[in-house]
Amino acid sequence: MITLKQDHSTLVVLSVLADGPSYGYAISKAIAARSEGHFKLTASGMYPLLTKLEKQGLVTTSWEEVKAEGADPESSGRKRKWYDLSPKGHKQLAKHIEAHRQMQSLIDAFVSPTTTHGTTA
Amino acid sequence: MITLKQDHSTLVVLSVLADGPSYGYAISKAIAARSEGHFKLTASGMYPLLTKLEKQGLVTTSWEEVKAEGADPESSGRKRKWYDLSPKGHKQLAKHIEAHRQMQSLIDAFVSPTTTHGTTA
DNA sequence: TCCGGATATATCCATTCTTGATACATAATT
DNA sequence: AATTATGTATCAAGAATGGATATATCCGGA
Fold first, then answer.
1. Which of A9, A23, B79, B100 has the smallest CB count inside 10 Å?
2. Which residues pair with B10 in a beta bridge?
3. Using the beta-carbon criterion (under 8 Å), do A106 and B39 form an inter-chain contact?
4. Residue A74 burial by CB count (10 A; 0-12/13-18/19+): exposed, middle or buried?
C-alpha cells in the first residue's frame, strides 16, 4: 500500500478528473481501484489538495445534495462537493504528464543497467 | 533544473555509489552530469541524506586528506569524507529500484491513454 | 432498535522535509 | 588580490505528511 505524496497525488487526481467530474470520496476510491489497491490517498491528503487545485483554478466546484432513497424532500441529506477539470486544469495535467515522463527517463539513466556514463573510450 | 526530493535523491545517490565509493561534492557533480544538467542535489539536501544513509548502515565512511600539488607534507589540506555502499546498501538500492519500477507502472495506469478502467462490458 | 461500517467532508498537529542562506576552510584561476 | 571552485556542514522558516479527530448521514444486520 503506497500512500501518495503531493506530486503524484496531483497527477493522479487530475487524471481521474480527466474522465469526468467527481468528488473527494469517489476520487479516493477510484485511485484505489485503478491502482488495484496499491495506491492510497487519505482524506487528510485529498481535501487540502482539492482545495489547492480549486484555488489554482485547475478545477471548478459545485455542491450537490445527496438524497436518500424515498427520503423526505424537505430533509437535507448529505452533501457532495463536485470537482470538474477546467481548461487550465487540462493543460496542467498535460504538463504534469510531460514532467513525469521526463523524470522517468532521467531516473532511468541512473537505474537502468546500461552503464554508459563515464569515459567509455 | 529539477531539484531532487529525498525519495529520488536516495535512489540516485545509491545508484551513483553502486559504481564505486565517492564523496558528497563528487556525487553532486555526478548527478548533474549523468542527468545532463537536469538534476540538482544541493549541499543542504546531500549531507543530511548521506548522514541518514550512514546511520541506516547503507554506507560505510572514511576520511581522506586531500593533498595539494607539491604541498608541504606537514600542512593539513582539505578533507574528503568517502562513502562506500555496504551490502545492506546494495540490497536497499535493489528495493528502491523495484519500488520505482512498480510506481512507474502504476502511474502509467492513470497517465497512459489506454483508458481500460471502468465497465468495458 | 441499536450498532457498526460505509459514505462524505474537513481540520488538527506533531513530526518530518525542504531549501536558500550561512559558516568555515583550502585550492585554483584570473 | 579577488573570484571561483572545492569540500563539508548546519540553521531556520516554511511546507508537507498522515494518523487522529470531529461531524453528520445512510444502510444493513442482529
1. B79
2. none
3. yes
4. exposed
Q: How far is A74 from chain B (nearest CA, A)?
A: 34
- A29-76, pLDDT tens digit by residue? 999 999 999 999 999 999 999 999 999 999 999 999 887 665 565 566
Q: Which residues of B touch A117 (CB under 8 A)?
A: 19, 33-34
Chain B span 15-54 residues with beta carbon within 7 Å of strand D: 23-26, 29, 43-44, 47-48, 50-51
The strand D neighbours among B residues 87-116, by Cβ under 7 Å, are none
Q: Which residues pair with A81 in a beta bridge?
A: A63
**Cα–Cα distance between A106 and B9 in angstroms, integer?**
12
Is residue B20 within 8 angstroms of chain A, CB to CB?
Answer: no
Residues with CB under 7 A from strand C: A 23-26, 29, 43-44, 47-48, 50-51, 66, 78-81; B 3, 5-7, 9, 42-45, 48, 66-69, 71, 75, 77-78
**Per-residue pLDDT averaged across B5-27, rounded?**
98
Cα separation, B23 vs B26, in Å, equals 5
Predicted confidence at residue B120, as pLDDT, reads 43
Output the average pLDDT for chain A: 90
What is the rounded distance in angstroms from the CA atom of residue A50 to the CA atom of residue A9? 10
Identity at A93, one-letter amino acid code: L
Closest CA to A36 of A6, A1, A10, A5: A1
